[in-house]
Amino acid sequence: MEGSDIWEELKMKYTAFAAVSAVALSVAGMAQAEPQAEVLHWWTSGGEAKSVAVLQEEFAENGGTWTDMPVAGGGGDAAMTALRARVLAGNAPTAVQLKGPAIQEWYEEGVLADISSVAEAQGWADVLPASIANHMKCEGTWCAAPVNVHRVDWIWANAEVLEANGIEMPTTWEEFNAAAETLQAAGITPLAHGGQAWQDATVFETVVLGLGGPEFFQSALVDLDTEALTSDTMKAVFDQMRTLRGYVDDNFSGRDWNLATAMVMNGEAAFQIMGDWAKGEFLAAGKVPGEDFLCASTPGDGFLYNVDSFAMFEVDGDDKRAGQELLAELIVGQNFQKVFNLNKGSIPARTDVSLDEFDSCAVTSSEDMAASSESGSLLPSYAHGMALRGAQAGAITDVVTAHFNSDMSSDEAVQMLADAVANSM
Ligand code: BGC
Questions:
Q1: Sheet hosting strand 189-191, strand order edge to edge
Q2: Is 349 within 8 Å of 128 (Cβ atoms)?
Q3: Whose CA is closest to 204, among 190, 220, 188?
Q4: What is the mean pLDDT of the chain?
Q5: pLDDT tens column, 230-277
Q6: d(CA 211, CA 222)
Q7: Which of 110, 141, 167 is nearest to 314 (CA)?
Q8: How many Cα atoms sit within 13 Å of 358 on the Cβ side?
Q9: Could you report the per-residue pLDDT of 294-337, keeping only the tens digit for each?
Q10: Domains of the chain from N-terminus onward
């Protein structure tokens, strides 16, 4: 062997040794490091706070120190603004409530940590449905941990108010409108609504699904097909939005979603169209499904899913990395998935958690999700960031809100919708 070859060989051995020692050192360091996590989330309502407390407690029981960074504002718009500011300042939080394509958008910025080691050790691929697992992956690595499955297309109702007015849960939009007219004549606000863009979008997407059907939803709000966006069906959707606008009270502007839920709880309003985090509010207030309040999917076929998840951001420090690993492990743990979702109103993301202790709305959700998955009508919620990238979703929501808060015609709305989507590409 020539002198230079020996030198090369030695260098390789030394480099390999150094790499092994570095890993060993870092593992040893991590083992000693006390897990730390600063967690950015938007769970600030009564039901949400009770739910996130479950994670905080489990984290503390396992030696972790949790720094809470709650950002009020349903739907997470304010939280995402806060996140952007922190990342731009070079000071990302350790763990962030993040979901849908936003996960991959942040991954492309090169700021997400890889949590594959936890996912592989815990066998996430075996316990999560493929549709959910796909949202948690970035170019083959695991980059987020799923918490639950929220269903968006729900109507919540005050049982007593419906009974007193001889009204059944509506199964078509005509029935909904007829019930609303009866209620309005009786002096009850038919629809509890908070006039915030994301809440308008939530109602809008349930109407798109209900009047257009699953295939139309896919073409319009997932594939952004121009023909679907400007179709007569979409005009009918905006007509129904205009009708719904007539069923909300005068003070709806800017109202938080949980205050709208409270209006249904106290009988001031009859219905709310909202995802099943609303059930978390009813439950936190001690209300019983089937007795105090009723749940039914919004009229039409299909299931709009909204999966909450946490992504870990690249941070320095063994304590923070240990915190990220512990969080990821707890989040997908069987116990957390049960207890958290019993409070949150959603169902577990894992398929192997028993629903024995869950209420009838959760059981319906799980059965409908399985049936929709079979029939191809399991669809990602656009309003909750599961279907589209931020720019496209934002463009649609701007039009939906502008229409809801003005006297814009349905013809104008569809044209504006197609233009906004085209400009956002
Ligand atoms: C989230 C829910 C949350 C709701 C209201 C949704 O986008 O997925 O977890 O409860 O917004 O803030």
A1: 189-191, 269-273, 154-158, 293-297
A2: yes
A3: 220
A4: 93
A5: 999 999 999 999 999 999 999 999 999 999 999 999 999 999 999 999
A6: 16
A7: 110
A8: 24
A9: 999 999 999 999 999 999 999 999 999 999 999 999 999 999 99
A10: 34-150+307-361 (3.40.190.10), 152-306+366-424 (3.40.190.10)
Asked if residue 25 lies in contact with residue 321, where contact means CB atoms within 8 angstroms, the answer is no
Q: At 347, phi and psi to the nearest 5? A: -115, 160
Whose CA is closest to 111, among 310, 311, 308? Answer: 311
For residue 305, the cross-strand partners are: 151, 380
Question: Looking at ligand 1, which atom is closest to the CA of residue 308?
Answer: 8
Our answer on whether the CB atom of 154 is closer than 6 Å to any ligand 1 atom is no
76 CB within 6 A, ligand 1: yes
What's residue 398's pLDDT?
98
Determine the pLDDT at residue 138: 98
pTM score of the predicted model: 0.92
> Residue 42 class from Cβ within 10 Å (0-12 exposed, 13-18 middle, 19+ buried)?
buried
Q: For ligand 1, is residue 38 a contact (CB within 6 Å)?
A: no
